[in-house]
Specification:
By secondary structure, the chain is an alpha/beta fold. Helices cover about 40% and strands about 15% of the residues. The chain has 13 helices and 8 strands. It has an 8-stranded mixed β-sheet with strand order 1-2-4-3-5-6-7-8, sandwiched between helices. About 45% of the residues are buried.
Length: about 290
């Protein structure tokens, strides 16, 4: 299948209902299952640059986290990290996916760990890129959690998001890219414009942010020891949100880390900015999971 056809297939949204949640996912490729979870406040489309290559080897399932993209639930519990884990465990079961490799970036790495903890025997290999770290709080998260809970907070967040100068600032998406011009291109169209166009999406995104309890991340310091599958870290070296100097000690909490690759100049969304470099590291690791 040609690259254009693969991407066309991947753009199509599919839905599966589990419990109270309606989960959106995108699917492409053939072979062993690979499950992908995105960061905040993105959607599964963030993996679009990886799909043409990954789909040659894997059946790729890119999920939208509950509260982000097109996944939603009327149940507040489904917005918590453990609730998200249960939702996606049920979604994978409903889709007939019994064994899979797993990859997550940013808060998608947090949710991926929750899924892996529920059924570690089903996860063949696990890739984590720039994600939450026990005993570490990302800069500015307290600020946005505060905004999310004050009257009119959603309107304020939407106003800030509409400002180019804010989007390119360190408290916006400046910590996600080396090249700030990337924020204003396809990234804006795919992930930020939908938020600006829908007040309901803004409310859901802020609800996600408030419900994800960082105290749970601190518990991972012990829980990581239960994840015995082969694990690879592919980390942006210049990320101010989740610094590599804190990520390396976290990697020692996993029993079976086979690689820790530092991507020079990479920040939080390294896969958006340096897809070829990141993809090379990931494919080499994941191909070991294929039969």
């Amino acid at each position: 299948m040609q690259q254009s056809q693969v991407l066309e297939e991947f753009v199509n949204k599919h839905f599966v209902e589990v419990g109270d949640a309606k989960v959106c996912y995108r699917k492409a490729g053939e072979g062993p299952a690979l499950v992908l979870f995105h960061g905040y406040p993105l959607s599964g489309l963030t993996w679009r640059k990886f799909i043409p290559e990954l789909s040659k080897h894997f059946t790729c399932y890119a999920f939208d986290l509950v509260g982000l993209g097109d996944s939603n639930s009327p149940n507040d519990d489904d917005f918590s990290s453990q609730g998200e884990g249960k939702v996606f465990q049920q979604a994978l079961s409903a889709l007939g996916v019994s064994s899979y490799a797993l990859m997550g970036n940013d808060s998608g790495g947090w949710v991926a760990r929750e899924v892996a903890l529920l059924e570690p025997e089903r996860v063949t290999r696990f890739v984590l890129t720039n994600t939450e770290i026990p005993d570490h709080r990302p800069p500015w998260v307290w600020f946005y959690q505060y905004i999310a809970q004050v009257p009119g907070g959603s309107r304020l967040f939407r106003f800030m998001l509409s400002l180019r100068v804010w989007r390119r600032s360190v408290i916006g998406f400046g910590g996600c890219f080396q090249n700030l011009d990337l924020i204003d291109g396809e990234f804006f169209k795919l992930f930020l414009a939908p938020l600006l166009a829908s007040h309901e999406r803004i409310v859901r995104a802020l609800k996600f942010l408030v419900t994800m309890d960082f105290g749970r991340v601190d518990e991972f310091k012990e829980l990581h020891g239960k994840l015995t599958m082969p694990v690879a870290f592919v980390w942006g070296s210049d990320d101010p949100t989740f610094p590599e100097e804190h990520a390396r000690p976290m990697a020692t909490q996993f029993p079976n880390v086979t690689q820790f690759t530092s991507i020079p100049r990479g920040k939080l969304f390294l896969h958006e900015e340096f897809p070829e470099i990141v993809l090379k590291q990931i494919v080499e690791f994941l191909m070991g999971a294929a039969p």
